[in-house]
Amino acid sequence: MPYFQGSLTKITLSIQSKNIVFYSLLLCLGILPVLSLFWQSHIELINFKVNWFLYPILIANVVLAIFLRRKITLILAALMFFLSFYLVLVIVKNGELEGLIRFAISVLPFCFLPVFNDESVGRKVTWFWVLYCISMLGPLYCSYLQYIGKMPFYEFDMVNGQYTGRISGGYNKPMNLIAFIFPLYMSGYYLFLIRKKRIIGGLIILSSCLFLLVIGHRTSLVAFLLILGASFFKQQTIQIIKFYYRYFLNFVFGIISMLGFYFLLSNYGIVDGIRGRIPMWEAHAQEFFDSDPSTLVFGKQRIQLSDKYKKEKLVGSLQETHNNTFRTIVFFGIFGFMIYCLFVRWIVLSNIALTQNLDLAFIQFSCFIYLIFYTVTNEPFYYTSILWPVLVWILPVHHTPKAIERYE
Asked: Could you say which DSSP state residue 192 is in?
């Protein structure tokens, strides 16, 4: 019996020494590009989307990691308390539970960032990049079929019955395809700056920008080109992003921008712009700031606009905000938005702003350049298929040669 107990202890320690959350996250992300192509497929018996099957895998490994480690990170404990509080509000107000679950799953793995960083020495993750590239063959092939006209475009890409939309790679919108391209785009900088493989890295960077030009997603193209320009000013770029989060400007600008749209509607009425997004932002700002004090502080726990906005033809959808900041403020309130901003600030300042190689630090901070742009017209923190690939480079998915001088 002692022999088996000793063996069991060794097996447990062996499993515990490996970061199961980290590896399960990479496994899920590696498969996600091809699995997300089935975004329309349901298993009718349990009313479950096919592309949701990865989430139980991640959650199960989080629970297993907590059991094996017999402790949880402080940030995970805070997240669990935060989500439990808002779960009660969702139940009481009959709010949108799916939105809360989406947010929880999206941010969950990033609560383990300190663990990832502590256990990343010598980690080999080449298998992840091989799996990811193989998985990307699916949407890239679909993009080719759309380009030659053998595969239709999807929602928001049809005008008067004519397929005049943008390449989406088989997803319902081009943004999902671009989010999956982003890790490969940043790998070009990794190869160019750190591994000194100038030709391969430069070709990846150039081809990614050209692909975005073909797709026609202007926000992402501007962000990609901005990162390209910032690569000539790495030190200054890092300092700007640090300044933005250190002084809580993500919170300040978020509240000010929503107030701005509230006063825009009050003074000028519904104003068309940005493919119908400005009217939606005005409507959400008005309904939120006209709410009672408790809703202002703790949110509506739903995104659905009231029926009075149905009369406004410019308000394209009553169920969307198309802005990550506005959705978070509306759903969680000013208090919840403050906690959300503190969480993102913690990611930037407490984890990736550690002692690093200058080039690697630039790559990681560039993830937040793109995230800032992406959140203007989209909601990445409510879609794992967007947030995970956009922030994958802040994880230890690289191998930095020891010979390269480290950045302080």
From this structure: I
